[in-house]
Design brief:
Distance between the termini: 26 Å
Largest sheet: 4 strands, antiparallel
Strand order of the largest sheet: 4-5-6-7
């Protein structure tokens, strides 16, 4: 007999804002944020924010978007259920980069002279570090470290998020302009706009594993695919670029160069890894890249001077019921999505954790239709990649739930068969 799971369907639609997955693009020249439906690649809302919005981060559950307003000296908090600004928080002079902690409790912001950490419930300061020429920020998967670019000293500062103190410094040998962290937390990729290089750095040994240069021109934005096989770099730092470079992480070489709009800046990838979105600052557009072919599949007109530095697409497949944030949490994605005959569910857990151990035996993947009826169950036994076959499923939207051996829900998401 089919099982009805009404709460699952309702919960997912709340997280997905009623429209499906969305991307939030700050437009610095028009003081607003364009909301893009990722399924249709169309603008579905425009949200007024503070002056000169340029950086952005989305909570992992998709419920909140935080936008740094460069000219407004503030951060706008957006409720994604209503696409409205629910609070405006003073954040010092020219907030430039922003990231939210994986547990959603605080944001980290760099401005002209500070690194600021604020609790998102009370908006009180968690920590402030003054006197630094801070830049790009990135948080590792388990939330234990925040990597902060110090542009004056050509280093990456490592913030311990438990003690809110700088616990280490990594020599980058270049002026860092953008940082992303590998899904397992073992490497950071550091782009330098002034040097036109990307350095690959081991986060444990702090050693530089590779320096990638050919084909890069003023890299300003960087993101990594959910499976860690590709890094996408926007080349907009010199003001006249129009390319995104694709790095093959297996050999640390550039595998493709994609023509996009003028002055590509912010760049983000969807949780399933199927699309990359690039904000083209001088073209007033967003380019959509199909990651299977590494070609542009759509161009979306947005507001004036879209900058969108940071992660502007939420990981809606963020796992739930996690007992502790002190261990890395798995990233769960399905690729391709949508699919016609079969797809692969990928669990990227990084180092082994109690949660990953609970998925090794007697675990299962449950798939539901839009009515909440369970239509397929797939056993999982010590697997990190699970094949999902269409079989007798009809075309349409489905939701999945990953159940551990302790009968805990550890991941949810959606997939589409077409």
């Amino acid at each position: 007999m089919k099982k009805i799971i009404t709460f699952l369907v309702v919960g997912l639609f709340l997280v997905m804002n009623g429209y499906g997955q969305t991307a939030y693009i700050p437009n610095r020249g028009s003081n607003n944020v364009s909301v893009i439906n990722v399924a249709t690649d169309s603008v579905i809302a425009t949200i007024p924010v503070g002056g000169g919005p340029n950086c952005v981060t989305v909570s992992l559950d998709g419920s909140r978007v935080y936008v740094g307003n460069w000219d407004g000296f503030s951060v706008s908090e957006i409720n994604t259920a209503t696409n409205t600004v629910i609070s405006t928080i003073p954040m010092g002079i020219n907030p430039d980069y922003i990231v939210v902690h994986p547990d959603g409790t605080r944001i980290y912001v760099t401005n002209s002279t500070e690194l600021i950490a604020k609790d998102v419930t009370t908006w009180v300061y968690v920590a402030i570090m003054n006197g630094t020429t801070t830049g790009s920020v990135a948080v590792n998967p388990d939330g234990s470290k925040v990597y902060v670019a110090d542009e004056a000293s050509n280093t990456i500062m490592v913030l311990n998020t438990t003690t809110n103190t700088i616990s280490d410094t990594i020599i980058a040998l270049c002026q860092p302009s953008a940082i992303c962290v590998s899904p397992d937390g073992s490497k950071i990729y550091v782009a330098s706009s002034s040097s036109s290089v990307v350095r690959v750095i081991n986060t444990v040994t702090k050693s530089i594993l590779a320096t990638i240069s050919g084909g890069l021109s003023g890299p300003t934005g960087i993101c990594i695919s959910p499976d860690g096989t590709k890094v996408y770099v926007s080349n907009g730092g010199n003001g006249n670029g129009n390319k995104v470079s694709v790095i093959n992480t297996a050999n640390n070489t550039i595998s493709a160069s994609i023509i996009v709009g003028q002055d590509p800046l912010g760049i983000s990838i969807t949780p399933d890894g199927s699309k990359v979105y690039v904000a083209n600052g001088s073209s007033n557009t967003v380019s959509v890249i199909n990651t299977l072919t590494d070609t542009v599949s759509a161009t979306i007109h947005v507001g004036v001077n879209p900058v969108a530095i940071g992660n502007f697409i939420s990981n809606y497949t963020m796992t739930t019921s996690i007992p502790s944030q002190t261990n890395p949490t798995p990233t769960i994605s399905i690729y391709p999505n949508p699919f016609s005959t079969s797809a692969t569910l990928i669990i990227n857990g990084g180092v082994e954790t109690p949660l990953m151990a609970s998925l090794q035996t007697n675990s299962s993947l449950h798939i539901y239709n839009v009515l909440g009826e369970e239509v397929k169950t797939i056993p999982i036994n010590n697997q990190k990649q699970i094949t999902i076959n269409k079989d007798n499923l009809v075309d349409g939207m489905y939701f999945y739930k990953l159940i551990s051996d302790k009968n805990e829900t550890v991941g949810v998401g959606k997939m589409v068969i077409d």
